[in-house]
Specification:
Elements lengths: L12 H12 L1 H7 L1 H14 L7 H14 L4 H18 L16 E2 L5 E8 L1 H7 L16 E12 L6 E6 L1 H12 L1 E2 H4 L8 H15 L6
Antiparallel strand pairs: 1-5, 2-3, 3-4
Helix pairs in contact: 2-3, 4-5, 5-6
Length: 218
Amino acid sequence: MRFPRGSLPPQKPRQWLAEAVRSRFPKLVAALGDATFETMLAHYLEREPAARASVRESGARLAGFLAAENYPPWYAELAALDRAQVEVGAAPAVEVMARRDLTHERPLHLVPAHALVELASATDELWVTLDHVPDSSGTWNRSPRSLDYPRTVLLWRDREISMVHHRVATPDEACALRAAQRGTTLADLYPFFGGANPHALALDAVVEWIDAGIVALR
């Protein structure tokens, strides 16, 4: 028997959903350990009825729940990074812009296979470190260091090998990326960049996006 995509099977839906959520937040599980993660997840599913509606809803709501409840702030940030990696990996592929397509006035839009995650602590460094921590170890016992200024992490999928990459965007670039999420042009991006030559900085940033395959061809 087949079930509608994203819906829950009729037998043991809570257990099935818990396992699905667990599989989508591997770094959060590794940092918290089985016992703490299971306790948190039970609290989450009890307090967020809408999260029990589908796998997608459960993933979409977890970071917000952790941020709103009395959990360490980096729990929510780690969940947001985990979720972003899954969403970027599953996003549809579209035709991307090449350097030759770029003009000052041509509309710029980012491809679906990208995400921007804003952090108040160095949770992205922890996220990378957890690649080398055994699954479900729960051995991480200190909070990531706090940042003096918010940090924006860009995640995107490599169109050649379908691998999700990530890097920290500069503050100027982060503002430009958010503008490109809405839709912008190269000419409109200049004011986001400081320095002696903001035009060159904006052009360099857009060319880097194009080379990475995160600008859609529309």
